[in-house]
Structures are given as C-alpha cells and as structure tokens.
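Anyone? Bumping this.
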Amino acid sequence: MLDFFTIFSKGGLVLWCFQGVRGPASAATAPVNALIRSVLLQERGGNNSFTHEALTLKYKLDNQFELVFVVSGPPWAALVSKCFVFAIDCHAVCSEGLSGRGLLRLGKGRVLREVSSWPRVGDLGLRASLQGFPGATSSPVIFLFPAVTSTVKQALQEALVQILQPQRRVDVLRDVMDAQRHRRPYVVTFCGVNGVGKSTNLAKISFWLIENGFSVLIAACDTFRAGAVEQLRTHTRRLNALHPPESHGGRPMVQLYEKGYGKDAAGIAMEAISYARNQGFDVVLVDTAGRMQDNAPLMTALAKLIAVNAPDLVLFVGEALVGNEAVDQLVKFNKALADHSMAQTPRLIDGIVLTKFDTIDDKVGAAISMTYITSKPIVFVGTGQTYCDLRSLNAKAVVAALMKA
Amino acid sequence: MAGAMEPYLDSLRRELQSPGPAAFSVLLALLVVALTLLLWRLAQGARSSRRAVLLLGLCDAGKTLLFARLLTGKYRDTQTSITDSSAVYRVSNDKGTNVTLIDLPGHESLRLQFLERFKAAARAIVFVVDSVAFQREVKDVAEFLYQVLVDSTVLKNAPALLIACNKQDVTMAKSAKLIQQQLEKELNTLRVTRSAAPTSLDASAAGGPAQLGKKGKDFDFSQLPMKVEFVECSARGSKGEEGDADFEDLEKWLAKIA
C-alpha cells in the first residue's frame, strides 16, 4: 500500500497528507523537508526520486497551481501523483481555455529550442541549467503576453543566481575569531590540481588575514615540487617586510613551517598545527602539492592528510579557465575524500577558490559548474598576482555578465 | 507656415461648429486614452505606496505557520517554503486598515532573491527568530539580520522592524531580552568582519557595505534609523494544534504600524 502521499503548495502550506504507516504526524515532515532542500532548491531535478534514510520519495511539480506532490510506496505509487497532475491540468485547460498560462505550458518545446540556441549556455552544461526548469518556469501571466525568450531568460537568471548563492555562512574572519577565543588555531587546507595558483592565493589570503590583525603560520606540505618551499619562504619574507614585527608587538605576523622535501605531508601538517597551538598563532594555512584527480595514490595521500588533521576549512582551488574539466576534478576530489575517510560524516570540500579570474573575459561558466557540483560556495576569487588581488564573489554580477549574450 | 496651416484650421473650426460623427469618435478615443492613463497612474501609485509587511527569518523559524495563523487563526501543517505567499490582512484596530502580509522563504539560496523583489514595497518587517534553536543558530540569524539592515533600500525607507521571538511555547525557549543582547553582541562583531571582507567582484558598489550603527560605540538597536522592537510569540500556541496561537503582542504591533 501507499506509505505516504502529500500535496503541498510551494508557499509551504500542506494541503493534504496521507500516512499509511501509523506513526507521529511529524515523522513525515523531515524527509519531505530534506527532499525540498536537497533536490528542489538545489535544482537537481534529474530523476524524480529521492532517498532519505529508509524512505524513497517520488515527487512531481505542478507549476500552474504551484503545487508539489510527494509520494512514497510501491512503484505504481508514482502514477497516483501523475493522475492528480493530469486531472488538474485537464481541468485547468478546459476551464481557462487558451489563456496566457496555458500558452506558457504548451510552449515548453519552444522553450527548450530557444535555450539551446544560446551559445553560452552550452558552456555551463545544458543539463545543469535545464534541470532547474520544471520548478522555475512559473511566472504568472497577467495582462501582457511576455515573449518566450524574456520569460526563459528571467527564469534562467533566477535559477543561476540561486545556484551561486552560498548555502551556508561564508565568513572566514568570524570563524577565525571564534577559534581565537577557544585558543586554538584555525586550520585551512588548500588542494587542487597542478598549476592552479594554490601557493599564490595562499599568500594573498595570508596578506588579507595579516591586514586584519591575525598571525599566520604557513605549513609547507608540498614536499614534492622543486622550489615549492622556497616560493613560500619568499612570500613569508615579503609579507613580513610589509608588516614588520615591530609594528605588531614584536612578534612576526607570518612564519613558515617547513621540513624540506620528500617527507610525509600529513605528518608535517600535524606538527605544524601543534606548533601553532603552542606558539599562539591564529591561523594555519596548509599548502599541499598539486595532483591530478585520476592519480589514485596521491588522492589517497591528500585524503589521509585531511582526515587525520581535521582542518576547519578545506578549500579547493580551481582556475576560471578550466571549463567542463572542473566538474570531473571536483567529483573525483570529493569522491576520494569521502572514500578514504574513517568518520561517519566524511570531510569534503568546504569551499572553492576561483583563481585567474582576470585571464578570461567576464563570462564565467566555471563558477556555475563548480558550485553546482559541490553545492559549496565560492569563498574567494583571485584576480591577479599581487597581494591585493583577492575578491569575494558577487553572484548577481557574474550571472548578469553571463546572460549578456 | 501659417498659410499651410490655414486649411487645417478651417476644417477644424467647421467641425467644432457643427460636429459630425467623426468628431465624436475622436473625442471618445481621447477620453478613453485619458482614462486609461489616469487608471495606470493610480495603479502605479498604489503599487509604489508601501503597504506590505514582510515575514523574514531563517528556515524553520515558523514564518509560514505564523502567516497562516494570522490570516485564518487555524493551525496548518507546513513544509519548507519555496516561493513567497502573500495575502491581505485586516488589522485589529478601530479603523480596520488592510496590510499585505508577505511570507518569504527562509532558505539560504532563496532568501536574498525574494528580499530583493519585495523590499521596496515594505512598510514593516517582521523578523521571526526560532527561540529554541537560537543559541545554535545565533551566527546565521545575525548574518541574515545584518544583510537585511545594511541593504540600501531598507536604510532609505527605514521600515519598522519587529523581531518576533517565536516558539515560546517550548520550555527551552530563550527570552526576548536575551536574544536582543546576543544579537547586539553578534552584530557588533559582524560589522567589523563584514567590512573587512575582500571587496566584491563588481566593485562598482559605491563605497562598500554601509556602516551599521555608530562608529566607536558598541552596537545597539537604538542606533538604527528605524524603530526596532522585540516581542515574544508562539505560532503553535500553548494548547498545540487545537488552541489559538499566542501572539497578542505581534497583533498589537501590526495594528500600531498599519
């Protein structure tokens, strides 16, 4: 029999609810809320079913009346919701005739053709952007008949801004202050493939932290690439020249913790963190070696570093030039971190640093792909090679530039 | 020039003296256009006047239930909202004025978009806080409140702000006084960290984020340009689903600002 069937409006009010299993009424809200948050809001409408704990939920949206149908039960249960939607649609078409809203529905084929003809959308991955469409095309048509192009553009813009909006708080300084209060260092780990700008952006972030009065310990855990430690040593020297110890109460604001080449990166990171705790550093920035996502032994080593040291923030550094390759990188990095973690809830990538933003023009499809794959925010954007070239992402500006096709 | 206009003026004079059917239809058309323009102007005026009360807050704060209770008085099951809901609410004062209650979704991906859409029409803002989960969520609550308070439209219009500490029916709920103190402390820290954040990509934003409160002094809600009040309420009510909601202070405030 049907385990569970509910109809609720997109505004949040439950219109009807049926629970086959005897249990507290509130037991049904949690899985449905999880469904809404992970599927509908993250525009992952690819397949119409979602599993939460033991319950498999199937859902259907009706845009005309802004309703959502959720059903759980045997395979034929999904037909129930389809029948409901079909009945409502028939009733609507019969009663309203060819009204503006009907036109919008009938024009779905035209909608798809319009969207696929735009060159820029191909870069984003048409799939990613169109998956959001069932929920997005719900504009009420009043007196005017807006052109299909403008309605689709509006809906696409809203869906893209929604993807780029951070799902959690992005305030590194606030979290550093919290860690300072608990007398422990705030640990940030940078990971990514070769040559994306990890060390350069690490230096920029150190500069920003020092400007705000926090002391930084840089852990040189790139023990493979020749010159990696020297690069960080040069950055440390320059940063200390910009902020000399005399102007900060006699203690150096940046220090480098390194153990040369060839050693185990995870061990160096652990020693650096305990050194920082003893010496009272506020932040530890851990620089790791660049590695390709297909290189299994190196991915295992990175996963071990993160699992053992439990950093507060794991930042994936990706360059804006990367294009669709970003999707593959992020998926494999996240998978490696999840596979090699012993914990119940593995530490995955917490945020993204988008670098070399100045080398492309203003249309950045990579930002959308990366945020969509991980559903984690873009924390910093690197726009050059000097210490001041660090920005934060403005979702509306990026989407506006992208849509200016 | 005057010579060229002569025949037209003549025919106009003749039409005015002995109006034919054509003149009537022209006059009627002009009247219809003038009427449409007048109606359009009135509609614009009605839209631009601020009659909306926005219900903002984090996810699960109880905004949709509060919305349903204010309008119907009955308890309704709710899920996470994905879009806004709006309805006309008759305020319980002697004049019986109407305000438009707008319930906005609290989810992180949607809240700013919907705020953007409705902030210009806001006469007042009710910021709903979950008093039970407040201790855990204080940073997120403060961040959203900060984003609302430094918005340029909100600063310009200065709508009345009410912070409704919801879920007071639960014994573990924090009092409004405590919530106010904690929020002031958190906002004090936030304005430092937010102004120190890296500048936004679209650096055309004039001068960066606005300064909240007075420089040099600890942040206080009385430093804001709008009137801020704190009330305690419970959308569920002490008797649960059968009884009434417990929000007289909220209704009184709505009556006051209408």
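Late reply, but here is one note on the structure posted above: Chain A has two domains: 4-146, 166-404.
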